[in-house]
Amino acid sequence: MPSGKILIGGRWHDGERVFPVMDKYTGEAFAEVQQASRQQVAAAVEVATEAAEKGPLPPVERAVVLRRAAEQVRLAKERFVELMIREAGFTTVDARGEVDRAQVTLNLCAEEATRIVGEAVSFASSPGQHERLGFTVRVPIGVVCAITPFNSPLNTVLHKLGPAFAAGNAVILKPSALTPLTAALLCEILLEAGMPPSFLSLIQGEGNGPGAWLLEEQAIGFYTFTGSTRVGRAIQAAAGLRRTQLELGSIASTIVCADADLDRALPKIANAAFRKAGQVCTSIQRLYVESTVLDEVTERLGSAANAMKAGNPQDPTTVVGPMISESSAERAESWVNEARLAQARIVAGGTRSYAVMKPTVITGALPGMKILDQEIFAPVVSILPFTDLGKAVSEANSTPYGLSAGIFAGDVSRAVSAAKKLRFGSVHINETSSARADAMPFGGVKDSGFGHEGPRYAIRELTEERLVTLNP
Q1: Which strands make up the sheet holding 200-202, listed edge to edge?
Q2: Which string of DSSP letters, residue by residue, matches 210-266?
């Protein structure tokens, strides 16, 4: 079991009290973690500030640390898997996929650490200044605070820590109190891999205390956050003129046109709707299906959902594990029941056992129903028929959010035309809304936030561009 303590300056400290870590399937506490005090938050910021002022390791040495960490994550794979099965409720497949992606992310960060460049600037357009030379350089911001979610307790953490360190910043990590141990094990590995101790702090805590205290610290130059739009607004308000990267709420849509290859599309759709118990910001919540293939898609997706074993994530045959808490599953079930009472049809699932919500497919959902109009964050997908692709695009655009969308179509020109009109940060053709490769830019629009993950793109966010000129 990794340390449940607070990490500051390479040392692990007791906090002001402890809080439990729950097994998400059994509902029983299996570990305790220390809660950081206000003084410890201030100390972590002070250490990070001093480290940033002294300066980072050279880029090539940062790359070596990140590659070494990738290898150590690989060697610790089963430890991470065991932790995530218990504290996140991940199935074995989901947990192993998380570790595999984490290695990719670390190696990408290592590559990008040595590619941080500016550009040449021309003065030829200004009369009398054609002899001047100019170029930009990218420099670290200084201290970065990363606040991370429960639903990707390893790879999303690395999409923040990795680029921040690659760019030369000192990082303070505040992981979700629901999944603190995966972050603790990762921090142990990063230190073993050679990350300078003063460049990494781990602040643990539940409730509003530690997170709010971090927002009070004016020495922090950048906040990177994944979570709800409500909390994202609070972070932006506290940050003021300081920079942020916010990946927030989502109601993700995927469109299936009549000429789509259903044999290719439907397995992807089932996986995107139900993996990680539907608790992914890009999980398909609205599935728009052209009317001529509606019956076939409904039948086949319903059958796929019914065939997915839901239950104990320790069982390697389980496909859908528990949600993050029983109260979350209760909420999802209540929304489904509200829709059922309003004449929506439950094609598959619709019920839960404790924190386990069965994969659920719904038809007949109408505007105003919570299952359509609010982010459900559960293994629940609503099938919506369309005859006019333009109207389907307009409906997908009608939510406050705009993180990711997908469209399956044989006619690529039609799909590209739709992609230009879908107001989302990402639009994937012949992939679902949940398609992602760790090298790509990832971010939203509207109430889904702004800024990008993806190591190359995140490093741009996590550095300042400085102009240097020379008049010979």
Answers
A1: 11-13, 6-8, 200-202, 170-174, 143-147, 222-226, 243-247, 449-450
A2: HHHHHHH-TT--EEEEES-HHHHHHHHHHHTTSEEEEE----EEEEE-TTS-HHHHH
pLDDT reading at 429 higher than 90: yes
Single out the catalytic residue among 281, 333, 431, 461.
Answer: 281
Could you tell me which residues come within 8 angstroms of residue 266 by beta carbon, excluding any fewer than 6 positions away? Answer: 297, 300, 301, 304
Predicted pLDDT at 1: 86
Active site residue 247: yes
Q: Which residues contact 346 (CB under 8 A, 6 or more apart)?
A: 336, 340, 360, 361, 362
pTM over 0.90: yes
Two tokens, residue 41: 């938050």
Whether residue 208 has pLDDT greater than 90: no
Q: Which tens digits make up the pLDDT trace of 284-323?
A: 999 999 999 999 999 999 999 999 999 999 999 999 999 9
Exposed, middle or buried: residue 255 (CB in 10 Å: 0-12, 13-18, 19+)? buried
Query: Which member of 247, 290, 333, 453 is catalytic?
Result: 247
Domains of the chain, first to last: 6-248+448-470 (3.40.605.10), 252-437 (3.40.309.10)
Q: What's the mean pLDDT in 452-461? A: 98
Confidence of residue 180 (pLDDT cuts 50, 70, 90): very high
27-52, pLDDT tens digit by residue? Answer: 999 999 999 999 999 999 999 999 99
Question: How close are the terminal C-alpha atoms of the chain, in Å?
Answer: 61
Q: What are the respective helix, strand and coil percentages of the chain, to the nearest 5?
A: 40, 25, 35
For CA atoms 75, 76, 77, 79, the dihedral sign is positive
C-alpha 227, offset from chain centre: 8
d(CA 453, CA 315): 33
